Amino acid sequence: MTSHPIATSHVFSTILTALLLLIHSSATATATALPVNVWPKPTSISWSSPYTIATLSPTFQFDSPSSPSNHYLSAAVARYHRLISSERHRPIYDTTTTNFSTSPTPLQSLSISVVDLAAPLIHGVDESYTLSIPNHSATAANLSAATVWGAMRGLETFSQLVWGGRRRVPVGVEIRDAPLFGHRGFLLDTSRNFYPVEDILRTIKAMSHNKMNVFHWHITDSHSFPLELPSEPGLAAKGAYGRGMRYSVADVGRVVQYGYEHGVRVVPEVDTPAHTGSWAGAYPDIITCADKFWWPAGSPWADRLAAEPGTGQLNPLHPKTYEVVGNVINDIASMFPEPFFHGGADEVTPGCWKADPSIQSFLSQQNGTLSQILETFINKTLPIITSHNKTAVYWEDVILAPDVKVNPAVFSPEHTVFQTWNNGPNNTKLLTAAGYRVIVSSWEFYYLDCGHGDFLGNDSHSDVDSNGGSWCGPYKTWQKVYNYDITHGLSEVEKGRVLGAEVALWSEQADGAVLDARVWPRAAAMAEAMWSGNRDEKGIKRYAEATDRLNEWRYRMVGRGIMAEPIQPLWCLRNPGMCNTVKPFVAQ
User: Fold this and answer.
1) Which of 477, 493, 344 is nearest to 432 (CA)?
2) Catalytic residue among 174, 347, 545, 565
3) What is the pTM of this model?
4) 3-state class of 416 per DSSP?
5) Where in the numbering of this chain does the Beta-hexosaminidase eukaryotic type N-terminal domain appear (predicted)?
């Protein structure tokens, strides 16, 4: 394709200014400033003067090490070579002309070096990298990383530095980069509505582009059990929505493998003992209050049978329960190599257990409590999880719920991680102060399903509710996501126990048709906050500066096949600064 000289010059000036903005706002910038957007923003980036652009050689290649112990780097190198060869991204950001020089020497290669090719993809693995694109006569750029996974992050950065039909790249660039938090995740609920495997793979690809590294797969719930298990085939046969709405062992293997190839861990969650109504088709005897109306007419909220339509909880007093749960845990532990295993344990609803005769007898004749019943369940199932050398992850409810909870002494901080979702930083404080490691998913900031109304029929709240029509409204804007400080109010020791964060998409009102737009670019906002922070070098929140960069990144994501929703009219990108306010809005 022949480029028009005037149009080409305009694209160059556009990219140059964007890169300059990136450097000026970099957390530890050391030079004047860069033209192309890198998301999430690197922790340190510089572009030396005179500002110079080079083209990639038609024979540009990656020179990378290979190792039989880790072939994932080779897969990533091949993937990024295809991307760089085909993308031809042209920024939309409309700017004034900025002077730059053009190197007469094309860039011939990117040399990749990795210290530890065998380091596994687990929490805490070193994801740091340095990227150097020398100036003028040099023909090779250099990417150095401690591990394969850091090299993948560097390859993503390099891909974002390349643009245009002639594959231009800034030279004289130095980047030193590493994440603030080791856990940067996304939770997808595939029980309430089913997602084909291709939707999951596309999501993992998008996560990799945003340097996110944990796909939390909330596979089952009360609504359906879509996972086929060798030891318990009846659960999916009778609990899935249909034959075409199941995940086979091969499907799981495909997702896990794809995750490794993109530097994304796949953490399975099978929620127990609540949220298990879908088990009743195969095992009705071990499920209490299955298939009941969730909130009986005339009953107070305290006597509901579930948090939402879709009832059913495992009965911890039934011996068969532990045979089935043991089989489920054992199968999943073998299907997912990931060291974290999420056991759920949220939202145990008292009314559901109280509706069961055997539990009624325990409560009345033995003076037992529901908390004792839950503790019995945890004491019998937690050792099964840890017997597979897994770290057990539970929702915070299991020790923080106001009514049914377990003595914290049951959980060893060495083998347990808690995931918060209530009360913002307050619950994070409670857990970290008690010595536990924490993953933050506060619904007030990170629930991406909120603000889209509710799925209840005949709900009078829809006529009066001004909170987005949902229990967790309003809608969580990308700014709300970006600005959340997950370690607010913590001591330095407590901050060290925060592993990171996850945004979540619960799927009462979502499926593959809306997945991309519901998640992106809001998940990208969390990704940058977890990677390099949400504040500039002066400690000031940088959401205003991030707007144009996220806007541009959203368009690039769309070009990469991720149908992210827009955050502004296109006019705003073409008229920089015109969509800002000159002062904060003040309520009149």
Assistant:
1) 493
2) 347
3) 0.94
4) strand
5) 38-161
